[in-house]
Write a structure and sequence with these properties.
Length: about 210
């Protein structure tokens, strides 16, 4: 790519994508408020909160090659985005722009993106875990996007992040406030979701490397 083209690309990248990319490069994670345009955030909230509860599934946790639902470990329910609704399309398009910026600036080789709506009914939680283990997963970068207007600290449901496998002290506690986006390297940060006292809505997603053939 020549200098002129490089300058053009960088000028066309909205500052928010550059900001997230720089935070990932420096710290491995980013917490961003007012992340998506307000109209998309609102449409996603509207859409997600009107999907019938019966469409959400308990999350399987693989044990000894079997898929079973372990409610002591996590008790959220989820539904994969299929991109049929316009709000989903807008969300996925925004994430595509983020993917391209990160690949352009950090050469991470992000190839694909999967995301699901996650609903935590009151008292639901997700115990401490890591989203990907080196060499065992092609998940590279996690996104968590919150859809909870007027969430109070007293409502619980915080995302608690730890610096590495050994640490038991949290370095970040994130309140799942509307239009807040967390992005982090999937292998680097163990994390957990504390029990929420009211319905907690989010979209969890993973940018993935190309799977080995
Ligand atoms: C996950 C997860 C965090 C959150 O879905 O893997 O850790 O804050 N979610 O919802
Ligand atoms: Mn996780």
């Amino acid at each position: 790519m020549n200098i002129y083209l490089m300058l053009c690309c960088n000028m066309l990248t909205p500052p928010i994508f550059t900001h997230i990319t720089q935070a990932i490069a420096q710290h491995g994670y980013c917490v961003m408020d007012n992340a998506l345009p307000a109209n998309i955030a609102h449409a996603l909230h509207q859409h997600m909160t009107t999907i019938p509860t019966k469409d959400f599934r308990g999350m399987g946790v693989g044990r000894a090659g079997q898929l079973h639902i372990d409610q002591n470990y996590r008790s959220d329910t989820s539904l994969w985005l299929d991109g049929k609704h316009t709000a989903e399309q807008d969300y996925l398009q925004w994430m595509e722009q983020l993917r391209l910026t990160i690949n352009q600036d950090l050469f991470l080789g992000l190839f694909d993106y999967d995301a699901h709506f996650a609903h935590y009914a009151p008292q639901s939680f997700y115990k401490r875990h890591t989203d990907a283990f080196q060499g065992l997963s092609n998940r590279k970068l996690t996104t968590v996007y919150y859809l909870n207007p007027d969430w109070l600290t007293s409502d619980g449901g915080e995302l608690v992040m730890y610096a590495d496998e050994k640490s038991s002290n949290a370095f970040q506690t994130v309140i799942p406030q509307m239009n807040r986006l967390v992005v982090f390297l999937s292998e680097s940060f163990p994390h957990e979701v504390l029990p929420a006292h009211k319905d907690r809505y989010s979209i969890a997603g993973w940018f993935k490397l190309k799977a080995n053939p």
